[in-house]
């Protein structure tokens, strides 16, 4: 992964270069800089959009993560790269190695040897325990034996002591299993229009934005007019509409994902 050129090199396909969009590239960069660490959705929003001067809603991040997974050929149910951590965020679960092609000196790795001299010295140290001499037969005092009283066998407890421990263990294990084996549902979209053969989608539970359709149509027509036919978006996701603002996410196919862009319309 080269964040400078927003590209991926597929080592299993002869280093085939895959171009990423700017949003997907910044998401992958932040995940790679903090591998195996769960990054919250707010942290990703801050790094990818707010630092660039944009304010988008939550569906933009969901769509960008979905596109990144397609670029990585990653599965949602059995991820090898980007894992969704329910109610927390996302986590890069693969091994990350930083490459420095311009550096000719190989970095040295120091391996600490166990302190064998100290271990040998401590092993050779033997403590001498001086025991008091046993009393001789002439000094021994014979005491009369006390009568032996047979001990009563303890009454078996009516409740097995392992049952409460098993119940406690299962109570702790159940929420962990729910977090590990439950995947959040992917966002669902519905089509609200189609202009220049480009479908316009919006989240299923999103408020109605029918009064924005003329503005959406004008934006798509201008976008198509200034782009080549083979690089047209496959869909446009519209969100917002409140506070006289609407967000349009132009989504392209995998070969032109680097052209993905987010636009904001003001009424």
UniProtKB/TrEMBL annotation:
The chain crosses the membrane at residues 162-181. Residues 1-94 form the OmpR/PhoB-type domain. The keyword DNA-binding applies. Keywords: DNA-binding, Membrane, Transmembrane, Transmembrane helix. SUPFAM superfamilies: C-terminal effector domain of the bipartite response regulators (SSF46894). GO terms for molecular function: DNA binding. Residues 104-125 are annotated as: Disordered. CDD domains: trans_reg_C. PROSITE patterns: OMPR_PHOB. This is ToxR. The keyword Transmembrane applies. Residues 1-94 bind DNA. Signal peptide: none annotated. It comes from the Bacteria. GO terms for biological process: phosphorelay signal transduction system; regulation of DNA-templated transcription. Pfam families: Trans_reg_C.
